[in-house]
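Pasting as-is:
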Amino acid sequence: MAGGWRLLYFSAPTRGEQVRLLFHAASTPFEDVRLDFPKGITPFKHSVLGQGSPLMFDQLPAVTSPDGTHVAQVAACMQFVGRSVGFAPESPAQDARAMALTLYSEEIRDSVFYKLLIPAVICGLLRKKFLGIFCFLSPLVNLYFRTSKVRASLNRRVRLLEANLDHNFRTVGSEGFFCGAKMSYADVALFDSVRESLDLPGFDPDKELAEFPLVRAFLQRMEAVPELSAYLSKRGPVVEAIMAGF
């Protein structure tokens, strides 16, 4: 790659999808290299490319900047791209806060999104592959993955996000974002993890956000960003996008 940004990630809109969203939000052109899971990563690993591999730990996502700098790990990718395209707080203290929120976003993704995504995809495949014959198994799948407890954990985490939005408003005087007066990479990360969790089957976003008006307004504000709205409308729901690959 020469002269532009490149993102290496799997086709599925999961953990690395937030980096795509950040590029779109910033209206920054990039080469979106979408790899098949799991073998698509193999040609980029150290076992094939040696020290020329763009993957620090043989994991995705990985970003390469126009000057050839390779960055790995999703939070580091978000901060690196955010700083490079003007989507990062200016002060070190606010940038540290943005990184903390981005890491917290990954906690939401791991404890809520991925745990509910698995049963959602399984149930979807039961309907798709077997013409709905085994739909009666869906409650058993949900019980096995303890989805009710996972949903309860989202409520606790969103409550903390509400408090952080209120904190930013009280300290900075800016309503609507988590770090300072304008959108940062942390906002994109949290938008992705919370929105996609609420979009999974079994959630009623209006009900889940009834207690959290600041988080609701934040999600609505982010969804209204033209670049994000256009991309997400074209992509469609996460579960449908993943199942399209089966």
